[in-house]
Amino acid sequence: MSDSQITSLPEVPFATPRLASAREHLVRAADHLWRVQDQREHVLGHLRIVADPLGLRYRAERLHLATGVFRMVGEFWRADDAVAALRHS
Length: 89
Description:
The protein has one helix and five strands.
C-alpha cells in the first residue's frame, strides 16, 4: 500500500477541432493548443481550448516574439469564429 495520494487528474489532450473552411488548417502545438496555418503554411496565430463552466471556449491568440507571451485576440464559442478573428485581424 502507498501513502501517496493523487491530488489532480492528468491532462488529457483534446481532439483537434474541425474547421468548416478549408482556407486554414490546425497543427497541434500542445495538448490544448494548435497553430492556425493558411494554405501557404503561414502561421496566422494560435487556437487554444479553454474550459468554461458553460462548455469549451476557443481562444484566438498571437505570440508576441519580443516578450515570448501569447496575446489574446478574442474568445469564442466556435473554433471557426476564433480562426476567422485571426484571419481578419
